[in-house]
Design a protein that fits this description.
- This protein has about 170 residues and is mainly alpha-helical.
- It is about 60% helix and about 5% strand.
- Among the domains are: about 40 residues; about 80 residues, no CATH class.
- It is built from 6 helices and 3 strands; from the N terminus they run H-H-H-H-H-E-E-E-H.
- Helix 4 packs across helix 6.
- The longest helix has about 55 residues.
- The protein starts with 6 loop residues before the first helix and ends with a helix.
Amino acid sequence: MARKLSQEKINEILRLFYEEHKKRIEIHRLTKISRPTINKYIKEDPRYWDEVTYRVLEAKNRRKAQWRSYQQKRREKTKRELWDETYEIMKKEHFQAVMELSSHRWPSVPTLYEFVRSCYKWVRGKFVRKDCLEDGTLVPTTLPKYIRPIHTLAEGLKRKRNTVINTANNALAY
Protein backbone atom coordinates (compact mmCIF):
# COMPACT_ATOMS: atom_id res chain seq x y z
CA MET A 1 0.00 0.00 0.00
CA ALA A 2 1.43 3.36 -1.08
CA ARG A 3 1.60 5.94 1.59
CA LYS A 4 0.77 9.55 0.87
CA LEU A 5 3.31 12.30 1.53
CA SER A 6 2.57 14.93 4.12
CA GLN A 7 1.37 18.29 2.83
CA GLU A 8 4.57 19.83 4.19
CA LYS A 9 6.74 17.54 1.95
CA ILE A 10 4.50 18.20 -1.08
CA ASN A 11 4.81 21.97 -0.53
CA GLU A 12 8.59 21.63 -0.26
CA ILE A 13 8.73 19.72 -3.58
CA LEU A 14 6.57 22.34 -5.29
CA ARG A 15 8.58 25.22 -3.83
CA LEU A 16 11.88 23.71 -4.98
CA PHE A 17 10.55 23.05 -8.48
CA TYR A 18 8.52 26.22 -9.14
CA GLU A 19 10.23 28.90 -7.07
CA GLU A 20 13.87 27.78 -7.01
CA HIS A 21 13.63 26.12 -10.46
CA LYS A 22 15.48 23.00 -9.30
CA LYS A 23 15.61 19.91 -11.50
CA ARG A 24 13.78 16.78 -10.46
CA ILE A 25 17.03 14.92 -9.76
CA GLU A 26 18.18 17.76 -7.47
CA ILE A 27 14.87 17.67 -5.59
CA HIS A 28 15.29 13.88 -5.22
CA ARG A 29 18.79 14.34 -3.75
CA LEU A 30 17.61 17.03 -1.34
CA THR A 31 14.39 15.39 -0.11
CA LYS A 32 15.17 11.66 -0.57
CA ILE A 33 11.73 11.20 -2.18
CA SER A 34 11.54 8.96 -5.26
CA ARG A 35 11.55 10.66 -8.66
CA PRO A 36 8.25 9.14 -9.86
CA THR A 37 6.54 10.52 -6.74
CA ILE A 38 8.12 13.95 -7.28
CA ASN A 39 7.06 13.85 -10.93
CA LYS A 40 3.47 12.95 -9.96
CA TYR A 41 3.03 15.92 -7.60
CA ILE A 42 4.74 18.37 -9.98
CA LYS A 43 2.49 17.40 -12.91
CA GLU A 44 -0.68 17.69 -10.80
CA ASP A 45 0.06 21.35 -10.03
CA PRO A 46 -1.72 23.91 -12.28
CA ARG A 47 1.53 25.89 -12.74
CA TYR A 48 3.21 22.94 -14.53
CA TRP A 49 2.83 24.11 -18.17
CA ASP A 50 3.88 27.67 -17.35
CA GLU A 51 7.02 26.27 -15.72
CA VAL A 52 7.74 24.04 -18.73
CA THR A 53 7.44 27.08 -21.05
CA TYR A 54 9.71 29.10 -18.76
CA ARG A 55 12.36 26.35 -18.69
CA VAL A 56 12.27 25.93 -22.48
CA LEU A 57 12.85 29.69 -22.91
CA GLU A 58 15.65 29.64 -20.34
CA ALA A 59 17.37 26.78 -22.18
CA LYS A 60 17.00 28.64 -25.47
CA ASN A 61 18.50 31.82 -23.98
CA ARG A 62 21.33 29.81 -22.42
CA ARG A 63 22.16 28.24 -25.80
CA LYS A 64 22.09 31.68 -27.46
CA ALA A 65 24.49 33.04 -24.83
CA GLN A 66 26.82 30.06 -25.30
CA TRP A 67 26.75 30.59 -29.08
CA ARG A 68 27.53 34.31 -28.68
CA SER A 69 30.39 33.48 -26.34
CA TYR A 70 31.75 30.92 -28.79
CA GLN A 71 31.55 33.41 -31.69
CA GLN A 72 33.21 36.13 -29.63
CA LYS A 73 36.08 33.81 -28.66
CA ARG A 74 36.52 32.84 -32.32
CA ARG A 75 36.65 36.50 -33.37
CA GLU A 76 39.17 37.29 -30.62
CA LYS A 77 41.32 34.34 -31.67
CA THR A 78 41.24 35.52 -35.29
CA LYS A 79 42.16 39.06 -34.20
CA ARG A 80 45.02 37.70 -32.09
CA GLU A 81 46.34 35.62 -35.00
CA LEU A 82 46.07 38.63 -37.33
CA TRP A 83 47.89 40.79 -34.78
CA ASP A 84 50.65 38.20 -34.40
CA GLU A 85 51.10 38.10 -38.17
CA THR A 86 51.06 41.92 -38.42
CA TYR A 87 53.50 42.17 -35.53
CA GLU A 88 55.94 39.84 -37.28
CA ILE A 89 55.76 41.96 -40.45
CA MET A 90 56.27 45.16 -38.44
CA LYS A 91 59.19 43.58 -36.62
CA LYS A 92 60.87 42.71 -39.93
CA GLU A 93 60.28 46.23 -41.27
CA HIS A 94 61.62 47.71 -38.05
CA PHE A 95 64.69 45.48 -38.20
CA GLN A 96 65.27 46.63 -41.79
CA ALA A 97 64.94 50.31 -40.78
CA VAL A 98 67.38 49.88 -37.89
CA MET A 99 69.87 48.10 -40.12
CA GLU A 100 69.60 50.86 -42.74
CA LEU A 101 70.06 53.60 -40.14
CA SER A 102 72.98 51.89 -38.48
CA SER A 103 74.75 50.47 -41.52
CA HIS A 104 78.28 51.57 -42.48
CA ARG A 105 77.95 50.60 -46.13
CA TRP A 106 75.00 52.46 -47.58
CA PRO A 107 72.87 50.90 -50.33
CA SER A 108 72.81 52.19 -53.91
CA VAL A 109 71.10 55.52 -53.07
CA PRO A 110 73.49 56.99 -50.50
CA THR A 111 72.01 60.51 -50.42
CA LEU A 112 68.53 59.30 -49.43
CA TYR A 113 69.88 57.06 -46.69
CA GLU A 114 72.30 59.74 -45.51
CA PHE A 115 69.37 62.15 -45.28
CA VAL A 116 67.18 59.68 -43.36
CA ARG A 117 70.10 58.83 -41.10
CA SER A 118 70.69 62.51 -40.36
CA CYS A 119 67.02 62.96 -39.39
CA TYR A 120 67.47 60.86 -36.23
CA LYS A 121 69.48 61.16 -33.05
CA TRP A 122 70.22 58.46 -30.49
CA VAL A 123 68.38 59.06 -27.19
CA ARG A 124 68.13 56.51 -24.35
CA GLY A 125 68.27 53.35 -26.40
CA LYS A 126 66.33 54.42 -29.50
CA PHE A 127 66.58 56.65 -32.55
CA VAL A 128 64.38 59.75 -32.12
CA ARG A 129 63.32 61.95 -35.05
CA LYS A 130 64.74 65.48 -34.93
CA ASP A 131 62.56 68.54 -35.57
CA CYS A 132 65.03 70.08 -37.99
CA LEU A 133 68.50 69.34 -39.34
CA GLU A 134 71.70 71.33 -38.62
CA ASP A 135 71.22 73.40 -41.80
CA GLY A 136 67.66 74.38 -40.75
CA THR A 137 65.83 71.96 -43.05
CA LEU A 138 62.63 70.64 -41.49
CA VAL A 139 62.46 66.87 -41.01
CA PRO A 140 59.43 65.28 -42.72
CA THR A 141 56.73 64.23 -40.24
CA THR A 142 56.01 61.18 -42.36
CA LEU A 143 59.09 59.54 -40.87
CA PRO A 144 58.46 57.47 -37.72
CA LYS A 145 58.77 59.48 -34.51
CA TYR A 146 61.22 56.97 -33.08
CA ILE A 147 62.77 53.65 -34.00
CA ARG A 148 63.61 51.14 -31.31
CA PRO A 149 66.54 48.91 -32.17
CA ILE A 150 66.10 45.17 -32.01
CA HIS A 151 68.90 44.04 -29.73
CA THR A 152 68.78 40.42 -30.79
CA LEU A 153 70.47 41.01 -34.13
CA ALA A 154 72.03 38.14 -36.06
CA GLU A 155 75.47 36.56 -35.53
CA GLY A 156 75.56 36.61 -31.77
CA LEU A 157 75.49 40.34 -31.11
CA LYS A 158 74.81 40.58 -27.41
CA ARG A 159 73.54 43.69 -25.69
CA LYS A 160 73.21 47.36 -26.66
CA ARG A 161 76.88 48.17 -26.12
CA ASN A 162 78.02 45.52 -28.59
CA THR A 163 75.54 46.18 -31.40
CA VAL A 164 75.95 47.81 -34.74
CA ILE A 165 73.45 50.43 -33.60
CA ASN A 166 75.91 51.98 -31.15
CA THR A 167 78.44 52.20 -33.96
CA ALA A 168 75.83 54.16 -35.92
CA ASN A 169 75.23 56.34 -32.87
CA ASN A 170 78.92 57.16 -32.71
CA ALA A 171 78.87 57.97 -36.42
CA LEU A 172 75.85 60.27 -35.90
CA ALA A 173 77.78 62.18 -33.25
CA TYR A 174 80.37 63.37 -35.81
